[in-house]
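Report of the visiting student (M.T.), summer placement. My assignment was to run the structure pipeline on a short list of targets and document each run. The first record concerns HIT domain-containing protein.
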Amino acid sequence: MDDCLFCKIVAGEIPSKTVYEDDLVKAFYDINPCAPVHFLVIPKTHIPSVNGINAENSAVVSHIFEVIARLAKEMKLDAGYRVVTNCGKAAGQTVQHLHFHVIAGRDLTLTMG
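After the run finished, the structure tokens were exported:
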């Protein structure tokens, strides 16, 4: 998508501090971290949100979680980490491109809603 912030990051039009990249996904540090470790993992193809996942693109979501597990192991996040995605404006989704926040490095309280 021409106006999608994350598509522009994937295309290299906007710089990011890359954590990991392969043919399907890109992981990069959040510009406004809420914990000592806070990075995003996104599909390189544009999927607007969880609502856009279907039979044709669901394999990339599985791959994203494989990447998250690999990075958590490499970063020694043994104490635990949180994986978060927001779906829709009312849930706090500010970029309309599927993305998963990986948050760690401090005790995370269970505050929902």
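Helices lie at 5-10, 58-74. The chain has a mean pLDDT of 94. I thank the supervising group for their guidance throughout the placement.
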